[in-house]
Amino acid sequence: VHFPDTERAEWLNKTVKQMWPFICQFIEKLFRETIEPAVRGANNHLSTFSFTKIDIGHQPLRINGVKVYTENVDKRQIILDLQISFVGNCEIDLEIKRYFCRAGVKSIQIHGTMRVILEPLIGDMPLIGALSLFFLRKPLLEINWTGLTNLLDVPGLNGLSDTIILDIISNYLVLPNRITVPLVSEVQIAQLRFPIPKGVLRIHFIEAQDLEGKDTYLKGIVKGKSDPYGIIRVGNQIFQSKVIKENLNPKWNEVYEALVYEHPGQELEIELFDEDPDKDDFLGSLMIDLIEVEKERLLDEWFTLDEVSKGKLHLKLEWLTLMPTAENLDKVLTSIRADKDQANDGLSSALLILYLDSARNLPSGKKINSNPNPLVLLSVGHKAQESKIRYKTNEPVWEENFTFFVHNPKRQDLEVEVRDEQHQCSLGNFKLPLSQLLESEDLTMHQRFHLSNSGPNSTINMKIALRVLSLEKQARSPDHQHSAQVKRPSLSKDARKSSFKPQVPVSPPPDSNKPVPASPVTDTDKKTDTVEKSQPPNASPQWPTDLSRSSSSLHASNFSYSPSHLSVKEPTPSIASDISLPIATQELRQRLRQLENGTTLGQSPLGQIQLTIRHSSQRNKLIVVVHSCRNLIAFSEEGSDPYVRMYLLPDKRRSGRRKTHVSKKTLNPVFDQIFDFSVSLPEVQRRTLDVAVKNSGGFLSKDKGLLGKLLIPLASEELAKGWTQWYDLTEDGTRPHGAS
């Protein structure tokens, strides 16, 4: 790949070579003093983890080129992009004494573009206040392990695989994660720790014309035009549109909102694909430089697609500036119609930026005199994010950043709850109406907030800022001609396609023509957007029923995707929304006693359910396939009308519920439906899958009720590989055991 504005810097490589032994000393210190204690504290099984040897090798890191940005940058900063590659024969050995486990790394390869920002520049020695390092996009990472199988047999690690480990490491290197090295004490590090995005890009993904027809003939069975959908990427935020069936001139009319932390350098990347039963065909791509969009503020154009013979795409792009005053808010609310509706979803009028610093004097949780494992759950409307867990402390320090898109700050609240991960209980909470921020200076609050339902002096320290998203149009001269600068791809089509082409068929959500912004799925493990759309019972995605194929295709998809639509308004829970209450359990016990009537029932008196469960790290989702049930109990003389309801505990909100269709008058229903929950692997291993088989009955019918329950803790299972199993149903879900 040729970088025209990149300079070679052999003097830099000679310098790095000279410094390499000292860099290695620093890396060894990092492994021993930072990584080793972090691994030990992460899990009880890893308390005896240690590095026995750390040798990074003699081959230094190479810098293949340097680019220095001179335009569109702040006068108080210097931005460098370094094309780096490291191919090292390392020897890093580790052991976990408790399990007599030894493993190690023989070699590491890493290739990517590292951004170095020197800021703020100050009028005093050493002229540079601090240094920030990060990768703009995931670097190519290869690790050659020794004894990896021993390592993955250790309890607590058996849900992992080498690809997941590589994913986790890569994600820690990419924005918004960054390493900040202060060079001057008390420099404005607070400002560096509280990175405010440069802007928000609102992408109206409107329509395409004249796409290539990709007729597919599977031995003459399947024929048809293209079924186009788009994948849109800004940095590590990825969106996927719905699929428009059999149309070469599709109209999507969808809207997405993406954060832009860094430009120059970040681009809007779009690829179109034709959904196929076997493999999705490529229909063209587009890369647009965000500097152009920022200059124009508003672009509404037809763009010719690259890498294909024909086809064009209609986009409307808006660059929204983050304003620290509320004077434009009413105008913005009117423009996105947030002043009329009562919904909490829709286009955003503001961005909430939050720096979670620390907490003090937390209560001890359930056990007296024992320190909790605190984490923080933050939510605005239906969007929730979680902090990392801090182990065995009532004075945790998190130092983490979060951002939320806000539909109407006059009406919405920020809810903060500190939880003890160990005992799954609340350590305190508080609610902040965002209208309070509107009255604060610079729309910012930086203080200790007192926690309710907590200890007498329990506080949490946070810096919270609201920024109004304003589309400022710049005045132009009459003869000004504009067109967005489209970057021609420098990679071959095949290489581009493999970068983030999905191989999972994704069905469109039903009746979704309203432009509602999707929630971005970031590639980081650190944040999980737990927003889900509540699905009507018949809206399960039509995935391939051939499981062996579908699970392998899931594994092959190396991208995170987001459902492109959220329900505009979360429905109010219905009267009969969840019947798995103690009263339903009592009724079931009574029915069991009547059924027994002196005879002995088999090993599984309530019947069994067959499920496939696995976690896809690339998509950051737990995938559950509900196959079928057998030998259910009859609810009335005509049998039962069973359906399956699932929650991922502790979340029992309406939006977290998944339901199959109802199977009429059968005790052996076949469902074969696939459901997913947006959740990261470390998080899902602390959750429990709550499955209930229920009888549908009519509306408010007395024949509504519970047929059996199942609680599956997802802690130590081999979630990444997945498994298919028959489970016994019980009255209250306790003591489930696999039947086969």
TrEMBL record:
Domain C2: 183-303, 328-453, 605-727
GO cellular component: endoplasmic reticulum membrane; plasma membrane
Topology relative to the membrane: Peripheral membrane protein; Multi-pass membrane protein
SUPFAM superfamilies membership: C2 domain (Calcium/lipid-binding domain, CaLB)
Biased composition annotated in UniProt, kind: Low complexity: 548-562
Listed Polar residues bias regions: 533-547
Gene3D superfamilies, per database record: C2 domain (2.60.40.150)
Protein family per UniProt: Belongs to the extended synaptotagmin family.
Protein name per Swiss-Prot or TrEMBL: Extended synaptotagmin-2
